[in-house]
Design goal:
Strand order of the largest sheet: 1-8-3-5-6
CATH class: Mainly Beta
Radius of gyration: 16 Å
CATH superfamily: YjbQ-like
Shape: elongated
Order of helices and strands: EEHEEHHHEEEE
Helix content: 25-40%
CATH topology: Jelly Rolls
Largest sheet: 5 strands, antiparallel
Number of domains: 1
Structural class: alpha+beta
Length: 139
């Protein structure tokens, strides 16, 4: 079994940016030479998420709107009482969505649906340069 690591640096992201990273992951899988296995995509940060979705304009608006309804910025968050940084909503949203995703690899290709992309979702209210870690395991 082989284990390969790659890093992806994303340019400065802003709250509710949703970035399609499928192509970057496919490139890393191809460069790894692993034909059968898995790739784990991990966001090294507590206010961003890795998810799958159909990367189309409607959902790119619907998902942030939905998050605002269930985890509004206007609420009082204890995190903000502790750190005075006004991003409690970002942490709660990220914990709901999750920092990582594992995708199968078969015959050297990511397994995903026709309309399914892997995306990074920025949830912090401050601009960030993000670093994603890929761990590719297999043969």
């Amino acid at each position: 079994m082989t284990v390969v690591h790659f890093k992806i640096e994303l340019p400065r992201t802003y709250e509710t940016d949703i970035i399609d990273i499928t192509g970057k992951i496919e490139s890393a899988v191809n460069n790894s030479k692993i034909k059968e296995g898995i790739v784990n995509i991990f966001n090294a940060g507590s206010t961003g998420a890795i998810i799958t979705l159909e990367y189309e304009p409607g959902l790119l608006r619907d998902i942030p709107d939905f998050l605002e309804r269930i985890i509004p910025k206007s609420m009082t968050y204890q995190h903000e009482q502790t750190w005075h940084d006004n991003n409690g909503h970002s942490h709660v949203r990220a914990s709901l969505m999750g920092p990582s995703l594992t995708v199968p690899i078969h015959k050297g290709k990511l397994i995903h649906g026709t309309w399914q992309q892997v995306v990074f979702f920025e949830l912090d209210d401050k601009p960030r340069i993000r670093h994603l870690v890929l761990t590719i395991i297999g043969e």
